[in-house]
């Protein structure tokens, strides 16, 4: 596990704009060196704020949208087009406004799709889609994502991995069905911690006072079963992007950074 790096911005608007600028640079760099980039989106307020900021950034035109693979870290298991689905919200915030290749947009299955109410089968099919996209050079049955973003919930959940639920204990599968989530809707699909940790970079987004306790707990050595955000890290970098409200309860040893 690499030590998380923290970047704290003045407020959530600036955090979203700075994170969007950072993401544009990552995508452009990956496309320049490899020809394509691979990004995992998150749902929630902070994730959608970042996508809206990206949509408004003039530099978005630097991205070659047709050479971008998009995946999701989790989904609320609802019918396609439901306003509460993470992919519906991402499309409204950004995806509908840019010339993506639809074959590269890997939304998670919907509850009115081929698997119906069988969320386990839906999770398995997403795991198979990930495995198909993984190359021999990748670390396991998922592609090497350049950046995997995760909104941090006030209870420290990331993706749809909630404290103490079975999904956060999964060590083998890359994608699981989630039942009984404490945040509606109760049925969800989620990448697991092993899948999350296969990403080159994991970015955790936390803005707002309601995220302050979660950030402090996750960054103070909590266990990943009790605080799933504590178990989310990337192979080469783990970055926490916060605003000052979300950083307000961090221990002094973490923030502000010690001066020389
Ligand atoms: O339900 C979800 O919540 C988390 C966090 O959302 P937020 O609104 O508290 O920022 C999100 O990361 C996850 O993708 C989503 O399904």
Automatic annotation (TrEMBL):
<comment type="similarity">
    <text>Belongs to the glucosamine/galactosamine-6-phosphate isomerase family. 6-phosphogluconolactonase subfamily.</text>
</comment>
<dbReference type="InterPro" id="IPR039104">
    <property type="entry name" value="6PGL"/>
</dbReference>
<keyword id="KW-0378">Hydrolase</keyword>
<dbReference type="InterPro" id="IPR006148">
    <property type="entry name" value="Glc/Gal-6P_isomerase"/>
</dbReference>
<comment type="pathway">
    <text>Carbohydrate degradation; pentose phosphate pathway; D-ribulose 5-phosphate from D-glucose 6-phosphate (oxidative stage): step 2/3.</text>
</comment>
<dbReference type="GO" id="GO:0017057">
    <property type="term" value="F:6-phosphogluconolactonase activity"/>
</dbReference>
<dbReference type="InterPro" id="IPR037171">
    <property type="entry name" value="NagB/RpiA_transferase-like"/>
</dbReference>
<feature type="domain" description="Glucosamine/galactosamine-6-phosphate isomerase">
    <location>
        <begin position="11"/>
        <end position="240"/>
    </location>
</feature>
<protein>
    <recommendedName>
        <fullName>6-phosphogluconolactonase</fullName>
        <ecNumber>3.1.1.31</ecNumber>
    </recommendedName>
</protein>
<dbReference type="GO" id="GO:0005975">
    <property type="term" value="P:carbohydrate metabolic process"/>
</dbReference>
<dbReference type="GO" id="GO:0006098">
    <property type="term" value="P:pentose-phosphate shunt"/>
</dbReference>
<comment type="function">
    <text>Hydrolysis of 6-phosphogluconolactone to 6-phosphogluconate.</text>
</comment>
<dbReference type="Pfam" id="PF01182">
    <property type="entry name" value="Glucosamine_iso"/>
</dbReference>
<dbReference type="InterPro" id="IPR005900">
    <property type="entry name" value="6-phosphogluconolactonase_DevB"/>
</dbReference>
């Amino acid at each position: 596990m690499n030590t998380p790096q923290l970047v704290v911005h003045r407020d959530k608007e600036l955090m979203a704009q700075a994170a969007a600028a950072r993401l544009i640079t990552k995508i452009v760099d990956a496309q320049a060196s490899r020809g394509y980039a691979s990004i995992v989106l998150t749902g929630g307020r902070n994730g959608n704020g970042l996508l809206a900021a990206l949509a408004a950034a003039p530099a978005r035109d630097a991205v070659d949208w047709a050479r971008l693979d998009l995946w999701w870290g989790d989904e609320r298991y609802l019918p396609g087009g439901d306003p509460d689905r993470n992919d519906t919200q991402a499309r409204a915030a950004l995806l509908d406004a840019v010339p993506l290749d639809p074959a590269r947009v890997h939304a998670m299955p919907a509850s009115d799709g081929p698997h119906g109410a069988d969320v386990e089968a839906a999770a398995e099919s997403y795991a198979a889609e990930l495995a198909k996209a993984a190359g021999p050079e990748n670390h396991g049955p998922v592609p090497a994502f350049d950046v995997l973003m995760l909104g941090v919930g006030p209870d420290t959940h990331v993706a749809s991995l909630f404290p103490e639920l079975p999904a956060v204990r999964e060590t083998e599968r890359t994608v699981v069905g989630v039942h009984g989530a404490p945040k509606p809707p109760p049925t969800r699909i989620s990448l697991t911690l092993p899948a999350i940790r296969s990403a080159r970079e994991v970015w955790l987004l936390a803005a707002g006072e309601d995220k302050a306790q979660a950030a402090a707990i996750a960054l103070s050595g909590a266990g990943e079963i009790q605080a799933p955000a504590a178990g989310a890290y990337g192979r080469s970098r783990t970055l926490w992007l916060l605003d000052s409200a979300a950083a307000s309860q961090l221990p002094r040893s973490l923030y502000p950074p010690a001066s020389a």
